[in-house]
Specification:
The structure holds two protein chains of two kinds. By secondary structure, chain A is mainly beta. Helices cover 0% and strands 54% of the residues of chain A. Chain A contains no helices and eleven strands. In chain A, the strands form two sheets. In chain A, strands 2, 4, 5, 9, 10 and 11 form a six-stranded mixed beta sheet that branches. In chain A, strands 1-3-8-7-6 form a five-stranded antiparallel beta sheet, with no helix packed on it. The termini of chain B are far apart. Chain B contains no helices and twelve strands. Chain B is globular. The chains are: A mainly beta, B mainly beta. At the A-B interface, strand 4, strand 5 and strand 9 of A face strand 5, strand 6, strand 10 and strand 11 of B.
Chain lengths: 113, 117
Amino acid sequence: DQQVKQNSPSLSVQEGRISILNCDYTNSMFDYFLWYKKYPAEGPTFLISISSIKDKNEDGRFTVFLNKSAKHLSLHIVPSQPGDSAVYFCAASADNYGQNFVFGPGTRLSVLP
Amino acid sequence: DVKVTQSSRYLVKRTGEKVFLECVQDMDHENMFWYRQDPGLGLRLIYFSYDVKMKEKGDIPEGYSVSREKKERFSLILESASTNQTSMYLCASTPRPLQGATNEKLFFGSGTQLSVL
């Protein structure tokens, strides 16, 4: 059973609008969450992270929200740009030594010009 | 910038061949990982290593082995390649954080797309 779920395999958004990518997890021991972006034929690149002691983290156009009680996090991209079109992976970690990251299946975002 | 280098971008191998995937990182990171990425399944951990000559099984180690003889190099070995091992293979590294430091993030290589025919 997947511990990290991204229930939307794909998402299409108009350029300039908000993109919201969702992620749910089942393991209450997870205390650190990351979002990665991946273009075809390239390795994933780190986007933004959040610790469980926070409920929001912002970096430019990217904001991650964490709702621990619901075991849910979301990534907001505002405004969306065509260059944001990629697969986005949510990942979670249950320890402080960076060894056990569990990834979701990914959501393919298409930003339409 | 951290650089994680995977020796091949594309590989085509025959069923039954022994396959070596090489990964080198240049930032003196303690932890190194091998993942495979398949559509709809995300990234699944095959093996990881937290020190030279140390290795730990991930979620899907069957059919694979690894070698970490030097800190900067982590090799993935497919002992006898099979068609179900056709996949994108991703190497990653991360430093061991100091106590009390914020959690570190994974740095990925560009990936190796392996096709087993």
